[in-house]
Write a structure and sequence with these properties.
mainly alpha, single chain, binds geranylgeranyl diphosphate, two-stranded antiparallel ribbon, 352 residues
């Protein structure tokens, strides 16, 4: 027996994202303060919205041509990359989102691939880490973005892999996790970017899998939600950062999937649609995308498989020959809860 609060409200979330899409592209919204306050996130927001729609089985719910036109209007001719909004400077994050959107929309021919590759490679520092843009902020997020983007463009062979991996290895901490730079505290978001970069580069051997898997399992709180580091609050987006890392380590069963599923569903807005960081808060497209992506990895019925490494539709990544050896939970056909409890699984692992 399932109640409405136990179900993902797909039609409502689709129309929530469609309404945001209208706000993104329509001219009259340029008189709206919120349009300008969120301009620096526009390209990412389109990627989050589009990917969430793909995961919910509605890839065509936003206008394709308008979306591609918007992406191309953010091209920074001087730098050879994409900004988040027309006339913004190019940044590696908006460049990855632009590539992901064009790949998803099967419009990669719009790209000047050589120039984009040159822009990305120009951001690698002598230490091996990447900067986000010409202003020079460094972060392991940007290393992952470079690896992901080059891989999607079929140009990974242009990367100095050893240099890239060496920097990530230096960010590994005593708890098995990774931080944003050398010496920085482990954080689930940074664990995702480091695991995913190492997965793409076939270098998972540098990870202390047992220690990191336990650290990731310890992110689950009594209410079922996951936090990003010890003593912090749960947040729906960690459903993706933690689950994707565990799926790359093939340890997804370390999480109580029923409790996490209920937590994510309880953060839905049952009136206007969208998912928030936690129950009762305002929804946004970031948490909607990562909540739905988390549910997909948990085998929630009716959703489409998402690739946890690239955070894009799994079928698309597979078609490009880029799939790595991750494991999600089997897609359920009904709404019954899964039979295995975490205690059972961990006990049986311990016994063997
Ligand atoms: C293509 C999926 C994809 C990603 C691109 C930008 C990026 C690469 C990854 C971001 C990874 C990351 C660091 C996620 C964490 C985001 C987040 C919720 C940060 C909040 O940090 P704090 O310190 O929050 O404000 P806590 O929860 O620790 O209190």
């Amino acid at each position: 027996m399932s109640h409405e609060k136990d179900l993902l409200l797909v039609p409502l979330h689709v129309s929530y994202i469609q309404n945001l899409g209208k706000a993104c592209f329509l001219q009259h919204n340029k008189n709206d303060l919120m349009y300008h306050l969120t301009a620096h996130l526009r390209m990412n927001a389109i990627y989050w919205g589009l990917t969430a729609l793909c995961t919910m089985g509605h890839p065509e719910a936003l206008a394709r041509d308008e979306m591609i036109d918007y992406v191309m209007s953010c091209w920074d001719e001087e730098a050879g990359g994409f900004g988040a909004h027309p006339d913004h400077d190019a940044h590696i994050l908006s460049t990855l989102s632009a590539i992901q959107i064009l790949v998803t929309q099967d419009a990669i021919e719009k790209l000047d691939i050589d120039r984009v590759v040159k822009f990305i490679l120009s951001l690698q520092q002598p230490s091996g880490v990447f900067a986000g843009d010409s202003f020079g902020e460094i972060d392991t997020r940007f290393s992952y973005i470079a690896v992901n983007a080059l891989s999607l463009l079929g140009r990974l062979e242009d990367l100095d892999v050893d240099k890239t991996v060496n920097y990530i290895v230096q960010c590994r901490n005593f708890d098995g996790g990774f931080g944003s730079r050398v010496g920085a505290e482990s954080h689930a978001g940074q664990v995702f970017v480091c695991c995913a970069a190492l997965t793409i580069l076939d270098r998972l051997d540098v990870i202390d899998t047992p220690t990191l898997s336990w650290w990731l399992a310890e992110r689950q709180l009594p209410n079922g939600g996951l936090n990003g580091r010890p003593e912090k609050l749960e947040d729906v987006c960690y459903s993706f950062w933690v689950l994707s890392s565990l799926s790359m380590l093939k340890k997804l069963h370390y999480i109580d999937s029923d409790k996490l599923t209920s937590f994510i569903l309880s953060a839905q807005d049952p009136e206007g649609g969208g998912i928030a960081d936690r129950p009762g808060d305002m929804p946004d497209v970031f948490h909607t995308h990562f909540g739905v992506a988390g549910l997909s990895l948990l085998g929630y019925p009716g959703l489409v498989d998402i690739d946890p490494v690239f955070c894009m539709p799994a079928a698309l990544i597979e078609k490009k020959g880029l799939r790595k050896g991750w494991q999600a939970l089997e897609r359920r056909t009904g709404y019954e809860k899964s039979s295995a409890t975490v205690e059972n699984v961990l006990e049986s692992e311990h016994a063997t």
